Amino acid sequence: MATWEIMGEGGGEFDRLATFLKSGIRGVKETQPVDTPIMLHLADGGDTDVFTWWFDEITKRGVDYDLIGLSYYPYWHGSMNALQTTMNTISARYDKEVNVVETAYGHTTASADSMPNAFGPEQEIAGGYAATPAGQREYLNDLVTRIQTVPNEKGNGFFYWEPLWYNGNVSWATAAGMNYLGVQSQTGNEWDNQAMFDFNGQALSSLKAFQEAGRQQNLLKNPSFENDGFTNAPSNWSVWRGNGAAIDTLKTETGGFSETYKATFWDDQAYQMSIYQTVNGLSKGTYTLTAYTMAGGDLTTSQVYVKNHGGKELKASITKSGEWTKVTIKDIPVTSGTSEIGIYVDAKAQGWVSVDHVTFVKNQ
Fold first, then answer.
1. Residue 181 has pLDDT above 70, yes or no
2. Predicted confidence (pLDDT) per residue in 51-87, tens digit
3. Fewer CB within a 10 Å sphere, N or C end of the chain?
4. Which are the contacts of 234, defined by CB distance < 8 A and separation ≥ 6?
């Protein structure tokens, strides 16, 4: 990377960079197994323009690679929506699978040593998740969802950086290691509160995110409204039309959360409407319902709900936002073997709600 830094960022320097990369790739192919994949990795996973600029130039120069890697830290690189846009765009534009190869989030804002940390109260606010083991786990679960919803199954997975640096006596930050290198600065590391172990080395609950990534089976059918193209009656969803609702008050349209389509409620007069699915054959346990929503205009009531699960109806409000927002109902106790999952809207004229990627999964 010193070559890149010295040469700068102009077109001629891309020529030199491409030559440098081709030499490295050729060396890998000559010395490693023939199926060893080549990944090119950039930081700033929330900046689509950076990725298209850089990979357009590399592609023009015929650099042969297999995978694209992104770094993504939510407190530095923007919203999950921004990451999703980058992954969707580059996976389609270059026909490559994508991997989030650096990510982390704090389980506390405290520090295990005297070294100032990269993650503190400001980063907790910017990142949008609580600096707790539960918040760290929720962040990783949401990240997995985003990766899994990259179109055409081009989202591969993620690497966590760095799960084991839980205090100042771990890895490169050891006093012995610093003495060996002749480093005179204070011992410690700036990442200890983003590890996946507490300061005493005890595993945190966030580690379960790795198990959950492969086990979350969505029990809903047509959860992202992709089955029918444009329609007023999305398959596998029942539609209830109340006062003021017409056939075309509900429609699927482009602009989905991760794939092509979303379901949108809208009318030029006041209306009431819901869509829902009934899921049968459920084993006893707790479940989680999530949906991604956008909304605007004059809404009397807009909510995601679950009922007939063996307890009282549970609801979560859909907030007004021009960006996709996750709505969640956690720890739903299912004892009846069935549940009705739905979205209900009671709106004034011009009030609208869009919904996509609805999931209903059993907790592990």
1. yes
2. 999 999 999 999 999 999 999 999 999 999 999 999 9
3. N
4. 222, 225, 227, 228, 252, 263, 275
Name the nearest CA neighbour of 99 among 68, 73, 64.
68
276-300 b/e with 16+ CB inside 10 Å = b? bbebeebeeeebbbbbbbbbeeebe
- Tens digits of residue pLDDT in 3-27: 445 545 555 689 999 999 999 999 9
Query: Could you tell me how far CA 119 lies from the centroid of its own chain?
Result: 20
Q: Round to whole Å and give the CA distance between 271 and 245.
A: 5
For residue 287, what are the domain limits?
A: 238-362
Give first-to-last CA distance, the chain, whole Å. Answer: 43
Q: Are residues 109 and 171 in the same domain?
A: yes
CB atoms within 10 A of CB 351: 21
Closest by Cα among 149, 155, 59 to 101: 155
Closest CA to 334 of 284, 291, 261: 284
Q: Is residue 228 part of a domain?
A: no
State the DSSP code for 152.
G
Domain count, the chain: 2
Q: Is residue 137 part of a domain?
A: yes
The answer to whether residue 274 sits within a structural domain is yes
> Using CA atoms in the order 73, 75, 78, 84, what is the torsion angle rounded to 10 degrees?
40
| C-alpha to C-alpha distances, 26 to 3, 34, 56, 63, nearest whole angstrom | 18, 11, 21, 10
- Which tokens in the block code for residue 125? 């606010």
Which residues neighbour 107 within 8 Å (Cβ) at sequence distance 6 or greater? 131, 132, 133, 135, 136, 193, 194, 195, 196, 198, 204, 206
Taking the C-alpha atoms of residue 151 and residue 291, their distance in angstroms, rounded to an integer, is 18
CATH number (domain holding residue 337): 2.60.120.260
